[in-house]
Amino acid sequence: MRLKRNSSSEPSDSAPASLGTGVRDERKQRTRKALLDAALTLLDGERSFSSLSLREVAKVAGVVPAAFYRHFTGMDELGMSLVDDSFRTLHDMMRVARSAPLPPANLIARSVETFLRYAQAHRLHFQFIAKERVSGSSSVRLAIRKELRLWTSELAADLAAFPKLKGFNGDDLRMMAGLVVNAMMGATELILDADLNDAAELGRIHALAQKQLMLIFLGASQWKSKPAQ
Amino acid sequence: MRLKRNSSSEPSDSAPASLGTGVRDERKQRTRKALLDAALTLLDGERSFSSLSLREVAKVAGVVPAAFYRHFTGMDELGMSLVDDSFRTLHDMMRVARSAPLPPANLIARSVETFLRYAQAHRLHFQFIAKERVSGSSSVRLAIRKELRLWTSELAADLAAFPKLKGFNGDDLRMMAGLVVNAMMGATELILDADLNDAAELGRIHALAQKQLMLIFLGASQWKSKPAQ
DNA sequence: GTTAATAGTGAACATATGTGCACTATAAGC
DNA sequence: GCTTATAGTGCACATATGTTCACTATTAAC
After folding, report:
1. Residue with CA nearest C8 C1'?
2. What is the 3-class SS of B10-74, one letter each residue?
3. Percent residues over pLDDT 70 in chain B
4. What is the predicted pLDDT for the residue at A7?
């Protein structure tokens, strides 16, 4: 053998990155994505990740089982990749939301709207998070919990900017953010199970989530954290 | 054949019920319970219900796979039985709580304490509910959702008795009850994943849940439902 | 005591699964 | 253009699975 090519799957160091890394890598990334998409698709509806088989995923991806190992060491590694991808879409949403902040009028209602619409549009990713947060293998489950904690902290930081929430110390802000995250996850689960064409049901879920957030914020406006500790 | 015996597994009609239905039925109920327990045990930790195999459950129950069919038509039916059993323990808790009502002082803190202790003591049932509520087969999942809705309505009825919550109409009471249930389920999931010997962590989870409920009730004390609708 | 019902057994089957290995085709590197 | 690396193939294997069927032992019914 002459020389080992750079074994990393990343485009080699200083290359312009967007310029073609060759037909080869592009094809590889395509079937890698096919595998991830296959898993997400199979996960829709009844199935849970731990009940998916490697062969099944490979078949839906249109690839022979052995080819799976060219991309992942096993289903667990694929699961971790799904965690990454799913939270990337969540963080994308937050980034967009922060870059074009909503006017304070009806802020809660419109935030709920934005979030739930996004969850519907990225149904598979949100479904994966919702399911595997509680039932996945411990590596996947812990990875999701970690990301959710991180997201909760970010939300707490955002909340700190509200003048009405001056009564909160850091711990209590996270406590409140956790409550908000729980409520939104609950609404997300309802949305994911709802009939997408039943506008009335979707409306009811949106309204429910909005009221719940308003109730939380109403309580928060009266909250006084213990100054010590 | 002479005469078919009453084919139902129930003791025949007007018998005193508590009197021995015979050695036979007792043995049958024993292995039926062994199957249910086997499934719950396997469900602890990593696994999800949909990843359990019939053979696996039979093996842990100490019975040959074919014997499984003497009790359930398949794993789905066993799952439905687990739903029944799990919610029976939940309702038992509520019944006990109502029969010996707590004094109003520190009511929230002590209710949280009671609930979370119960969840720890009946770890496997609560874990099953928490997991399969979101990831189970649709029959199991829908059965759990239905029971949770029912439980939410019961809680809403209990809440209606509080003088501080006069500002609520029925819909909004259920909205608030849903928020409480979500928060308690969230805390339950944390408890189920926590190290049972780590008293500090358990204490933190209890304290978190208590604060979240207090925040909700603080908001509720200011709430005014729209009188119309 | 004889007979019928049945909970649990053991073996068999067709099929599905994870993983290994030799292979082929093709793009990348020189 | 020749050579090397490698994404994907095809086949094999041991093992696990759901389900069936004839059977056995024990209880219930008369």
Report:
1. B67
2. CCCCCCCCCCCCHHHHHHHHHHHHHHHHHHHHHHCCCCCHHHCCHHHHHHHHCCCHHHHHHCCCC
3. 90
4. 38
d(CA A83, CA A68): 18
Instruction: Please name the residues in contact with A80: beta carbons below 8 A apart, sequence gap of 6 or more.
Output: A139, A140, A143
Statement: the CB of B161 is under 7 Å from strand C: no
Residue of A nearest to B149 (CA): A190
Output DSSP code: residue B152: H
**Of B150, B29, B41, B35, whose CA–CA distance to B88 is shortest?**
B150
Q: How many CB atoms lie within 10 A of CB A35?
A: 23
What is the predicted pLDDT for the residue at B16? 38
Distance from CA of B192 to the nearest CA of A (A): 10
Contact A181, B144 (CB under 8 A): no
The answer to whether some atom of strand C lies closer than 7 Å to the beta carbon of B4 is: yes
Give the span between the Cα atoms of A21 and A24, in whole angstroms: 8
Residue type, A46: E
What's the half-sphere exposure (Cβ side, CA atoms, 13 Å) at B67? 17
Give me the mean pLDDT over the B198-227 stretch.
Answer: 96
A83 burial type by CB count under 10 A (0-12 exposed, 13-18 middle, 19+ buried): buried
Give the span between the Cα atoms of A71 and A31, in whole angstroms: 9
Asked if B175's CB is within 8 angstroms of A215's CB, the reply is yes
Are B222 and A222 spatial neighbours (Cβ–Cβ below 8 Å)? yes
- Separation of CA B68 and C1' C10 in angstroms? 14
Please give the torsion angle defined by the CA atoms of residues B81, B122, B180 and A146, in that order, rounded to the nearest 10 degrees. -100
Q: Judge contact between B216 and B180, C-beta under 8 A.
A: yes
The whole-model pTM stands at 0.90
CA B179 to chain centre: 17
Rounded to whole angstroms, how far apart are CA atoms A198 and B147?
Answer: 23
- CB contacts, 8 Å: A134 with chain B: 130-131, 134-135, 189
Q: Region of B12 please: left (phi>0), alpha (psi -120 to 50) or beta.
A: beta
